[in-house]
Amino acid sequence: MGSRIAIIDADITTLDVDAIVNAANEALAPGGGVCGAIHRKAGSELAAACAAIGGCPTGESRLTPGFGLPAQYVIHSVGPIWGGGERGEGAKLASCYRTALLLAAENGLGSIAFPAISTEIYGFPSDRAALIALRTVRETLPEVPGVARVVFCCFGSESRALHEAALAATGDA
Fold first, then answer.
1. pLDDT tens string 110-161
2. What's the burial of 161, exposed, middle or buried (CB within 10 Å: 0-12/13-18/19+)?
3. What would the mean pLDDT of 7-12 be, rounded to a whole number?
4. For the chain, domain boundaries
5. Does domain 2-170 sit in CATH 3.40.220.10?
6. Are 117 and 133 in contact (CB under 8 A)?
7. 32's torsion region: left (phi>0), alpha (psi -120 to 50) or beta?
8. Residue 114, Cβ neighbours under 10 Å: how many?
């Protein structure tokens, strides 16, 4: 299963995969960080497609075309804002990864790239987020055999190291 998972340090907006995941806000509006970069690269049609959806609850995912991106689709996953870990943030973050993978499978997508959802602007501790991400993806992959490749697209060597450590810690699913 490890061969289905790759961890890289790159700009997610440049990846040639079927879908990239946007660390979105509940309004699915252009924002900062990864979300802002994806919206800028995709073009104004992405904001219009997101507005037509009308939002997305925390922990869920929605699909739009990729427009100006190399990726054919964008899966918008709304991660939780860190509040100390006592408000179900871990379960909501896990749900982001799970619903994104299920949405990819439902739409026949074979490759997907994730950013580090809820870290940075939303304040989720990066080490905990990486462990939740890798554990959830490993647990979900048997349910989505058509998803042949999952890329964790890290922004910087520190994030990459945390994801590599989480991959090693989660072992085989």
1. 999 999 999 988 999 999 999 999 999 999 999 999 999 999 999 899 999 9
2. middle
3. 96
4. 2-170
5. yes
6. yes
7. beta
8. 26
